[in-house]
Amino acid sequence: MAKNIFRILDQGWTFKQEAEASDKWRPVSQLPTNVHLDLLANHEIPDPSIGKNELGVQWVGEKAWQYRTTFQSPIIPEQSGLKAVLEFHGLDTYADVVLNGTPILKTENMFIPERVDVTSLIQSQDNHLLITFSSAFLKGKKLAEKYRNHYWGCWNGDPSRLAVRKAQYHYVSQCILSFRAVLTDVHVLARVDESLESASVRVTVDTEGLARTVTIELILEGRVLASNIVTAKANSAECLFELHRETNTKDLPLKLWFPSGYGQQPLYTVTVTLSSKDGPVQSANKRFGLRRANVVQQSLADAPGKSFMFVVNDVPMFCGGSNWIPADNFIPRVSEQRYRDWIKLVVQSNQVMLRVWGGGIFEQPAFYDACDEMGILVWQDFMFACGNYPAHPEFLETVKREATANVQALRHHPSIVIWAGNNEDYQYCESEGLNYDPDDKNPEHWLKSSFPARYIYEDILPRVMKSLAPDTYYHFGSPWGGKNTRDPTVGDIHQWNGKPPSPHIRPS
Questions:
Q1: Among residues 428, 433, 453, 430, which one has the least CA distance to residue 443?
Q2: At what angle do helices 393-410 and 461-468 cross, to 10 degrees?
């Protein structure tokens, strides 16, 4: 076996209620999916988006559901060095996974992709995969009861939602791969010099298994600009490309990425090919843009407070835009084309920025790809919104894993120019009179306060950002800054009084 074998497990799925012994196995309508779409496809519930139908289908979220399929796998000879791995993307949220009768995974966070080595369990004939999804609503209720000393409070929804790392969506996607050597991460760190005349692109490749060499190509507009073959050592390989404004034909050309309306959006591609002793086994691509982005916060000469201005390639931006919430109650219904159509509308309406709201999801790749291609800046929230989240050790650990996985996945996008810790959680803290002393810089004190989630926003998330995306600005929350969250002189605010902006800041 020379090349790795990837197989999307999107066929043959059926589903049923777990607790109902008499319940029949029904066909799954699509992959990715969620149980509401599957019940709709089987004509067992009305469309929840019509009228008051959603009130009649609340029971769905309070039941446990099982999904199963059978798949074939290549035979893996003993002592061959080959591995079989199952990858899961978007298991929502509390899932128990069983392969051929053996439990292999328990999950508790829909925002974390999972990867399980199943080499010892794979059979040469049929392999049986069963996933049981417990009710996240009921799990949340139990957690809120367990940690009853925490102040469980929120706007919008049941407070027990704060205990559960999920959005209000349920979708499933799995694949199996067999490999001798595999790429586990491709990181592109692109830095543009202050002069805007040169840039460096450092590509770091992480591998697993018996990797020998990694071929790394830098491509622009279909043309290979440079290619390096690097020996993989300790499951890692790295190379550096230096680019310059075209001064002679030997230089690698530097073309800057600009937001829509301010310039073009050239995108470079890094192609990575992994080889073992048998030859090439896997390739992967990552697109990125070269730009220099800053959030400028300087004292104002003719007004109180400080600026909060986005500057890209030394050009100040007027960031007129919109708050982006999930495009559908059922995310699997949103196609790549629908994402592109929405972003086209954003461009056509002369908007420059979209804010991915912290009450939704880390969006699908198609969303960020479209923003990269069309020049729409992205303000990315972490997924916390409108409440007082807990901070017990298990919760903090899953939050750290969640943040790490999603920053790693999104950090190469030139469109993302800011990450914010949450949506309106500091505002909720103020409204409820919770303990928050901005002058207290001791994280251990925060954990013992009635607003312990401060530890997430001001300790865990900044450390993740510093480690994985040090060049992207991190903001503790939105709104945040100044003497309180309503202070218009520092940071950002959320304006709820409906008044239009002052005429002097309207775009011309």
A1: 453
A2: 30
Contact 166, 205 (CB under 8 A): no
Residue reference for tokens 């073009």: 264
| Contacting residues for 120 by C-beta, under 8 A, at least 6 apart | none
Catalytic member of 114, 208, 363, 424: 424
| Preceding amide of 32 cis, omega within 30 | yes
Q: Does the predicted TM-score (pTM) go above 0.70?
A: yes
Strands of 102-108's sheet, edge to edge? 26-27, 14-17, 65-71, 127-133, 94-99, 102-108
Residue 69, SS3 per DSSP = strand
- Tokens 């059926």, residue located: 14
Distance CA 168, CA 326 (A): 10
Dihedral angle computed from the Cα positions of residues 178, 333, 91 and 93, in that order, rounded to the nearest 10 degrees: 180
Q: What is the DSSP letter of 292?
A: -
- Hey, what amino acid is at 310? F
Quick count: other Cβ atoms within 10 Å of Cβ 200? 14
Sheet holding 293-296, edge to edge: 293-296, 309-312, 315-316
In angstroms, the CA 277 to CA 292 distance is 40
* DSSP assignments along 248-275, one per residue: STTSEEP-B---TTTS----EEEEEEEE
**Cα(342)–Cα(128) distance, integer angstroms:** 39
Quickly count: other Cβ atoms within 10 Å of residue 287's Cβ.
17
What are the residues whose beta carbons fall under 8 Å from the beta carbon of 347, sequence distance 6 or more? 260, 374, 375, 376
- List the structure tokens of 155: 């706007």
Q: What is the pLDDT of residues 190-210, one digit of tens each?
A: 999 999 999 999 999 999 888
> Using an 8 Å Cβ cutoff, are 358 and 427 in contact?
no
Alpha-carbon dihedral 404, 408, 413, 418, rounded to 10 degrees: 20
The answer to whether the beta carbons of residues 415 and 353 sit under 8 Å apart is no
How far, CA to CA in Å, does 379 sit from each of 229, 295, 413, 420, 424? 36, 11, 12, 8, 15
What's 135's DSSP letter?
Answer: -
208 counts as catalytic:
no
pLDDT digits 0-9 by tens, 199-239: 999 999 999 888 889 999 999 999 999 999 999 898 899 99
Question: Rg of the Cα trace of the chain?
Answer: 24
What is the C-alpha to C-alpha distance for residues 95 and 66, in angstroms, rounded to an integer? 9
Q: How far apart are CA 201 and CA 251, in angstroms?
A: 14
Report the alpha-carbon distance of residue 187 to residue 404 in Å, rounded.
13
pLDDT tens-digit readout, 250-304: 789 999 999 999 999 999 999 999 998 878 989 999 999 999 999 999 999 999 9
User: Do the Cβ atoms of 162 and 126 come closer than 8 Å?
Assistant: no
Would you state the structure tokens that stand for residue 243, as one six-digit string? Answer: 């680019």
Give every CB contact of residue 454 below 8 A, 6+ residues apart in sequence: 436, 446
Alpha carbon of residue 263 to chain centroid? 27
Q: Count of CB atoms within 10 A of residue 8's CB?
A: 12
